Each structure stands twice: as C-alpha cells, then as structure tokens.
Amino acid sequence: MVVIGAGVYGAAVAAALTRRGARVTVVDAGAPGGGTSGATFSWTNSCGKQPRSYHDFSVMGMAAHRRLAADVPHSDWYHETGNLEWADTDADRAELGRKVADVLDYGYEARWLTRSEALALESEVNPAALPADGIAYFPREGWVEPTRLIGHLLSTAVSAGAEVVRDDAVTDLEVTAGAVRAVRLASGRRLAVDAVVDCAGPQAARIAALAGLALPMRNTRGVLVYTSPVAVAVARVVHAPHVHLRPDGGGRLLLHSPEVDDAARVSDRGEISVDPSAVAEVVEAGRALYPGIRAASVESVRVGERPIPADGLPVLGRVVELPNFHFAVSHSGATLSLHAGDLVAAEVVGEDRSDALAPFRFERHAAVH
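Above: the chain's sequence. Below: its structure in token form.
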C-alpha cells in the first residue's frame, strides 16, 4: 500500500493500515508534518458544522482523539480544555446564537456564560474586551499539537514495518486495466502498489489527476502568527471578534484572524510572504484581548493552505471507477483524521465501511459534472 502525504491524514491512515497487518510506504514531497499539518490552528470541534452527518462525523473524530489520548502514555499533544466564543455585531451575535441552538439540538455540549463566568475560566482576558453576557462556551473542544501527533502515528507505523519516504514528490501514477499499478517518484523510484491512498491535502487534486480523476477543490490560505514565550495563562481556544488564539506549547501563543488571511502573497517563484502590517494587526488584536502579552514578539509567521473540497465536506474512501484508489481529504483534518483515517484504512484492506463513508464519497462530485 502507498499512502501519499505524511500529514495528519497520511499518518493516521498509515498507522491504521499497519495495525491491520498491511505493508505500507508513506511518501511525501517534503517532511512529515511540513505542509498544512504544520501550519494549522488545529482546533478540534464540531461547532456549527452542517449537515448533521458532518457534525456527527466530527463528534466521532473528537471521540477518537480522547480514546488515543487515554490509550497512549504521555500523549500530551491533545488538549481538551474548551473553546470560548463571542461576537460584537448584531449579525454575528445572531449567527452565534443559531450555532449554539443547533448544536444543543444535536446533543452537543454548549452553554452561555456571563463576563464574570468567562473570566473565571480565562482570568487574564481584558474584561473590557468581553460582553456582559452572550459568551458561548464549548467545553469538549480544544486543540491538538499536530506534528507531535504525526510523530506518534508514524513511529507506530514504522515500528510495524512501514517505510516513510520524504522529500520525494509523486510525479506519476501508472494506471492500467482499471487499477493503479505503480507510483513513480521524482527520484526515479517506482513503487508497485496494491492500493493507493491520496492524503495529499492541498495537492490532492493534482494526485487525483494523475489517476485520471477530477477532484474539485477550493483551497484557501490561513495566516498564523506564533509569539515568543510569554508568562500569560491562556488555557483554552478563544474566538474573539478580531482574533482567534490558543496556547502553542512552551509558553507561546498562536494567533489567527480571518480578516488578514488574504494578506498572504505568492510570488512568481512560488515564495509566500505576508504583509507585515497584517501581522501587526493580528498581534495588536491579541494584545487588546490579553494585555499580558504586550511584551511578546513575533517568533514566526506561517501560511497554511487549507484543503477544502468544493462542497466543503470530506472526500473519503474508495473510488468506484478505480477501486484501488482511495481518498482521505478534507478541511478540519485535525478533528477528523484519526476517525476518518481508520475508516479509510479499513476499507483499503477490504472491510465494509459503506454506511460510515456514504455521505463523503468522491462520486458526489462526479455526479455534479
């Protein structure tokens, strides 16, 4: 089996395949976790996801993280500390109200907090930045440290016999008689295959095209700002009106604002840069929310490309017209990868996962075209 991509999806699929006794080679054009998985907010949630099938699937993804965290000693890459969210315009408050009502109707944990209740959870938030009430709290949400999770999953796969090939891009797929026969790499290496799993994230459509498949994607970019270590107690994911933030280990904070995502620019040579004024805007919004980080500097800025299928929903499982080619592609990979990766791996080795994967098949896109 060849798994293309060594991000959270590729690592999860590889670990699940080797657990089932499969021989696996994982290939990546760069380093494991060096793509989208290394530049992501990695918020674990099912907050506002529609339709219901996607919401339920995300809840199962969150449960898979809990199980792994419970099963693996020292699995401190998973942080289920909750998410706070509030809005500052009538339209956004109404939208947040609808989101909370929907998830409560689904049986998802959520509740409304007052300013004093929110400050009891996040004591270093600037009280003036909080409304008197109407603060949504989702206690079962959190975040993962994706590269540490990837490291665990790949080491598990390697210990069971998997090979990880890095810095070697897939250049071609040999397809004959309705099946993929081999994967060709930039190094010239040819890998004969029984099955291929496309976990290439933003490059998933390119890999699919090598197999003669058209996967419609609408990828977007996200600008992430990482601070220097600061002596500020931030324990949760926080979605404030102009900045989103969470801890990032070692006393650092990760800041993001959708308002500046379009500040990322790609040069003719493919180099990505971000307008410094946009970075400063995000940092100032963070400082207004947590005054204690005023002394923090910007340690790094990363731009992640979010792999988003055309309708926003995951694309998972085998392709009917090419049955040894499988997809594991979606936005929200940090939430979904363990659960979805296990289902995809099960199907690769012949287990029936038809019901679980039915809403997320590739063929829904083929039907549109």
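The first strand starts at residue 2 and ends at 4.
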